[in-house]
Amino acid sequence: MSEDVREDDGRSPVAAPLRLPLDFQAHYLMNQEAWHAYALHFLRTNDAAEEAVHRVFLEILRHWNALLAEADLQQQTWAILRRVVIDELLQDFREELAAMDSGVGLYPALGKLPQRQFDVIVLRYIFDYNTARISWYLGVTPSTVDYHCRKARERLAPVYQSRYGTKEDPK
């Protein structure tokens, strides 16, 4: 992010940094290290963590003025970080699932779930997170988590029923 600025003699270009709001710069400096550690914990590679945090700060910058009007800037920006990291993590996992064979068609059925239903099912049944933790990660209410879980299980029920010949709800 730079502007093309010529030296005083007008000959060679000099890259000047894009002027960012001072309060945004302070927010960046205050959070960058911790956010990188958070992203690295989940995404496992430095490159993936750096790219995710970069996307987070670009999104924050795009909405900076609106975020400043929020009651809790730190909470709002942390929610953006969580969403970006979890979306990246779950997208990678979704792609891995598509390539796997469960023998009963469960993995392809999981891959066809709408995004929120997929996220909730993976976080609940694969990562073993409780409703409160899923709610926190996804930035939705616990009742919304339960709704998406219920709807996803309804969509997955035919796969379960075809394998086990029962009408019981898979849990």
Protein model, in words:
With 171 residues, this protein is mainly alpha-helical. It contains eight helices and two strands; from the N terminus they run ββαααααααα. It is elongated, with a radius of gyration of 22 Å. The N terminus is likely disordered. Helix content is 70%, strand content 6%. The N and C termini lie far apart (49 Å).
Biggest β-sheet: strands ordered side by side in the sheet? 1-2
Helix content: over 70%
Could you tell me the number of beta strands?
Answer: 2
The gross shape turns out to be: elongated
Roughly what is the average pLDDT, rounded to an integer?
Answer: 86
Itemize the secondary structure elements and their pairings.
Elements: E1 2-6, E2 13-17, H1 22-43, H2 46-62, H3 64-68, H4 73-99, H5 106-111, H6 115-126, H7 131-138, H8 142-164
Antiparallel strand pairs: 1-2
Helix pairs in contact: 1-2, 1-4, 2-4, 6-8, 7-8
Short overview:
The chain has eight helices and two strands; from the N terminus they run ββαααααααα.
Can you give keywords for this protein?
171 residues; mainly alpha; Arc Repressor Mutant, subunit A; 2 domains; two-stranded antiparallel sheet; 70% helix; sigma factor; RNA_pol_sigma-70-like; Sigma-70 family RNA polymerase sigma factor
